[in-house]
């Protein structure tokens, strides 16, 4: 990726480095119409949501899933070499692990938010592509007659292939319509059993879309005036909601374009909205602290603390991303 000279704001860069699509060129391939499956994604005992614009689908009685998403869910790093048309799946570095864990945390939050939302199955067109797949240094090839597909820059492979290629448990439970995966670390820790069989038909409830927007501080219990402690607690909750929604809103851009420059522009626009929402939250907090009787010194120190934490969080993402990309 030619990103070593591009400086994105913290959240944007940290997310984009993990979500950059596997943009295999399928322009000359003949598209195949498949039906999206409403599938539940459960990895290491935790429900996860597919990023917006990514799906699970069935083709020739096999369930296909996004290679990058599943690799991340199993705590693996993914690198796409567009020139060589090669996908490399490997163990993450410590810097990559930091961003990966954040991604999984937000994917789990998105799954919880969308658990009660119905997903309408629809027909989608995918294109067969020829790519080299390397897992932990060894090239893996699909069995004769099976195919890798691409949709909007995302690579899709069969469930069973991913299980065998990574060398861990990934099963399809046709009764519940679930893809159930267990990373090596999870299995070695003795968490759970191998679970369901690996038949590859059926459907269930699928991954939902990531949310957006920010929280706001509310009134105290019973609708009365808030105390200083209540204002601070409510503001903290609002800021935690803002952080989650900002990350999810940027994740929601994935699949909307395969143009990295356009994706970066959109993501920076989302971050600008997040900055505006943060400033609005600070204005609200200041007013509520004044109404609660806090003195000016306490108000200034509290707002400064929130602002420092917000900027440090963005800096943490930026530093992790630069370490990941080798930017000095």
Provide a quick synopsis of the model.
Residues 1-26 form the signal peptide. The chain is of the alpha+beta class and 328 residues long.
Q: What is the approximate shape?
A: elongated
Write down how many β-strands occur, each being a DSSP E stretch of 2 or more residues. Answer: 14
Number of helices: 8
Strand content: 15-25%
CA radius of gyration: 22 Å
Q: State the helical fraction.
A: 40-55%
What is the rounded distance between the termini? 16 Å
Describe what you observe in this structure.
Keywords: Signal. Residues 54-180 form the Copper amine oxidase-like N-terminal domain. Residues 190-222 are annotated as: Disordered. The protein is of the alpha+beta class and 328 residues long. The protein has two domains: 31-188, no CATH class; 221-325, no CATH class. The chain has helices at 10-19, 67-73, 94-114, 159-166, 184-188, 228-251, 260-291, 296-325; strands spanning 32-37, 40-43, 46-48, 56-59, 62-66, 77-81, 86-90, 123-129, 132-135, 138-140, 148-151, 154-158, 169-173, 178-182. A six-stranded antiparallel β-barrel has the order 1-4-5-12-11-8. A four-stranded mixed sheet has the order 3-2-14-13. Strands 6-7-9-10 form a four-stranded mixed sheet. Helix 1 (10-19) crosses helix 7 (260-291) and helix 3 packs across helix 8 (296-325). The longest helix is centred in the last third of the chain and has 32 residues, at 260-291. It is elongated and about 75 Å long. Residues 1-7 and 192-222 have low confidence and may be disordered.
């Amino acid at each position: 990726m030619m990103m070593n000279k591009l400086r994105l704001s913290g959240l944007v860069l940290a997310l984009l480095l993990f979500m950059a699509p596997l943009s295999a060129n399928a322009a000359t391939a003949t598209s195949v119409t498949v039906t999206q499956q409403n599938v539940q994604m459960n990895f290491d005992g935790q429900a996860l949501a597919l990023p917006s614009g990514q799906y699970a689908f069935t083709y020739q009685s096999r369930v296909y899933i996004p290679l990058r998403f599943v690799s991340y869910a199993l705590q693996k790093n993914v690198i796409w070499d567009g020139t060589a048309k090669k996908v490399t799946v490997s163990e993450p570095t410590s810097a990559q692990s930091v961003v990966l864990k954040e991604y999984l945390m937000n994917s789990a939050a998105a799954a919880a938010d969308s658990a009660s939302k119905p997903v309408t199955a629809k027909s989608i067109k995918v294109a067969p592509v020829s790519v080299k797949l390397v897992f932990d240094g060894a090239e893996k090839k699909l069995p004769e007659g099976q195919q890798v597909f691409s949709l909007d820059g995302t690579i899709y492979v069969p469930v069973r292939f991913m299980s065998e290629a990574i060398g861990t448990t990934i099963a399809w439970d046709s009764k519940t319509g679930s893809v159930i995966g267990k990373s090596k670390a999870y299995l070695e820790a003795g968490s759970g059993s191998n679970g369901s069989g690996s038949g590859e038909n059926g459907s269930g409830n699928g991954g939902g879309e990531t949310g957006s927007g920010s929280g706001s501080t509310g009134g105290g219990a019973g609708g009365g005036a808030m105390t200083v402690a209540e204002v601070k607690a409510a503001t903290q909750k609002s800021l935690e909601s803002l952080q989650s929604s900002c990350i999810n809103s940027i994740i929601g851009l994935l699949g909307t374009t395969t143009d990295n420059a356009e994706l970066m522009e959109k993501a920076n626009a989302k971050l600008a909205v997040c900055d505006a929402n943060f400033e609005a939250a600070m204005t609200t907090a200041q007013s509520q602290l004044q109404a609660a009787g806090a003195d000016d010194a306490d108000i200034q120190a509290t707002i400064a603390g929130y602002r420092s934490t917000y900027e440090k969080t963005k800096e943490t993402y930026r530093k992790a991303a630069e370490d990941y990309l080798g930017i000095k």
